[in-house]
Design a protein that fits this description.
409 residues; 6-stranded antiparallel β-sheet; 3 domains; Jelly Rolls
C-alpha cells in the first residue's frame, strides 16, 4: 500500500478528490457497491480481461441472443430458394417456396403465392408474397389461413425447452410489407408435447418494417432430439371465431384453438390485399440481433435436405444412368446420386405421362416409382411397354415438368 493511502472511513471525512493511490488495498468490496453502480461507461477500455472473470461466471442464460454464425434456425429465411416453382395459383395446404407451406381451412377465399422480387428493402432480393384473389368478408368460425414452416427437433436443442430454469426465451423477427394494416398474430406449436404460445405484431403502414416477437422460455415439454417436426411456426393471415376469441395466449400452455389468433385482422377481406415476408430469424434470447445473411448456396444446401429437384436447368432429361434389366423388360431403372443427404428416406413426385424414355426409340412412360432410393440416392423406375434389355439413353420430360425427391416434415 502506498505510504499516503487511506482507508474508506478517512476518505469520507475529507473534501478532497479520491485518487487510486489514496485507496487502501481491499477496502472496496462487492458488498459496498450499490446495484448497477459500475456501468460500462465507467470502465476503461480493455480494463476487463479474461483473467478478471471468475470461472463459471458467464452462463448460457447470460450469453443468449449474442450474434454469431448459425444463430438463425430458420431455413430459406431470405426466400431465395423456390425448387417447386415461383408461382402457385389457388393455393391451399401445399408447400410453395422451399420450407414454407400455405394452409387454409374451410375457406371460400383464394390466394396466389409467389416468390416476389424485392427492390425496396436494402439487403434483400426476394420475399414470399400472398395475393388475395377471391375475397371472404364474413369469416365462418372454423376458417383460418396462414403460412407455416416446421423445424426438426435436433435443430432446436439450443433453446433448452423443457429443461426447467435452463430453458431460454426465443425471439422471432421478420420483415413484412402489406397494404392491409392492423394486428397480425404468430403462433408456435410444440408437436412433441401438444403445447403452444402466440404473439402479435401491429402493421401501421404499407412499408417494409421489421417486427419482433419474443416468446417466453418454456420450462415444461422437452423437445425430441430427432429428425421429426418439433416446433411449427404459423404466420396467421385470417382466422374465424374458433381461434380468434378470448385473450391471446402469450404464455406456453396446453394446445387449444381459443386464444391462438385473438385480434387477428382479416387479410382475406379484399382482392386488393397483398402480404409479403422475408428476413425471418429465430434465435435464443429476449431481443432480436441483426439479421444473419447467408449465401444462396448455403440456403439451397439446407433446403435440399427436404426437397431435391432433379429436373436439370439446361435439358429436360432426368439425370443419372439408365438401363433395362434382362429379367425385367418394360422397366428402365435410372440410377441417381442425391446432392446432399436427405432428412429421411424420400419419395418421388412425378407424373408418368409427362415423360418419355429412349430405348431404341421414344416411348411414353406409363408408371414411375422409386427403386431402392435412400437418403443419398438409388433407383427410379420408368415403366414403358416394348422396352428390351439394353441401355436407356434418357428419361425425357415433355415440357416443364419437375422431378422432385421429397423428404418434407
Amino acid at each position: 500500500m502506498a505510504s499516503n493511502a487511506k482507508n474508506v472511513a478517512e476518505l469520507l471525512n475529507t473534501d478532497t478528490t479520491v485518487k487510486v493511490a489514496d485507496i487502501e488495498d481491499g477496502s472496496i468490496t462487492t458488498a459496498k457497491l450499490a446495484a448497477d453502480a459500475v456501468t460500462a461507461a465507467k470502465l476503461a477500455d480493455d480494463s476487463v480481461v479474461t483473467a478478471n472473470i471468475t470461472d463459471g461466471a458467464i452462463s448460457l442464460v447470460k450469453t443468449s441472443g449474442i450474434g454469431g454464425g448459425g444463430k438463425n434456425v430458420i431455413i430459406n429465411s431470405e426466400m431465395m430458394i423456390a425448387q417447386r416453382g415461383t408461382s402457385f395459383a389457388s393455393v391451399g395446404n401445399v408447400y410453395t417456396l422451399d420450407r414454407f407451406a400455405f394452409y387454409k381451412q374451410n375457406s371460400g377465399a383464394a390466394f396466389t403465392v409467389t416468390q416476389s422480387t424485392v427492390t425496396d428493402l436494402p439487403g434483400f432480393g426476394h420475399a414470399l408474397k400472398v395475393d388475395c384473389t377471391t375475397a371472404d368478408t364474413s369469416l365462418a368460425a372454423n376458417e383460418q389461413g396462414y403460412i407455416v414452416t416446421k423445424i426438426e427437433g435436433r435443430e432446436l436443442q439450443r433453446f433448452a425447452k423443457g429443461h426447467g430454469s435452463d430453458a431460454l426465451p426465443m425471439t422471432l423477427s421478420f420483415y413484412v410489407k402489406t397494404n392491409k394494416t392492423g394486428v397480425y398474430t404468430a403462433r408456435i406449436y410444440d408437436r412433441d408435447n401438444g403445447r403452444n404460445v402466440s404473439g402479435s405484431y401491429t402493421v401501421a403502414n404499407a412499408n417494409w418494417n421489421r417486427y419482433t416477437i419474443t416468446f417466453p422460455a418454456d420450462a415444461s415439454g422437452k423437445l425430441d432430439n430427432d429428425v421429426n417436426s418439433s416446433l411449427e411456426f404459423f404466420f396467421n393471415l385470417y382466422a374465424g371465431a374458433d381461434t380468434n376469441t378470448g385473450s391471446l395466449v402469450t404464455s406456453w400452455a396446453a394446445s387449444a384453438d381459443a386464444g391462438s389468433t385473438t385480434g387477428q385482422v382479416n387479410f382475406a377481406d379484399s382482392t386488393s390485399n397483398d402480404w409479403e415476408i422475408t428476413g425471418i430469424q429465430l434465435e435464443t434470447g429476449s431481443s432480436a440481433t441483426p439479421f444473419e445473411h447467408r449465401t444462396r448456396g448455403e440456403h439451397l444446401n439446407a433446403c435440399q435436405r427436404y426437397l431435391q429437384d432433379l429436373t436439370p436447368t439446361n435439358s429436360p432429361y432426368l439425370p443419372g444412368s439408365g438401363s433395362v434389366p434382362s429379367n425385367n423388360n418394360g422397366v428402365c431403372v435410372f440410377h441417381v446420386a442425391l446432392t446432399v443427404q436427405m432428412r429421411t428416406t424420400p419419395s418421388l413426385t412425378a407424373t408418368a405421362g409427362n415423360y418419355r424414355v429412349y430405348n431404341g426409340g421414344s416411348q411414353t412412360v406409363t408408371g414411375m416409382a422409386v427403386n431402392g432410393l435412400s437418403t443419398v440416392g438409388g433407383g427410379i423406375n420408368c415403366n414403358a411397354p416394348n422396352m428390351v434389355a439394353r441401355e436407356c439413353n434418357g428419361c425425357f420430360a415433355n415440357g416443364d415438368h419437375r422431378t422432385l425427391i421429397v423428404a418434407e416434415l
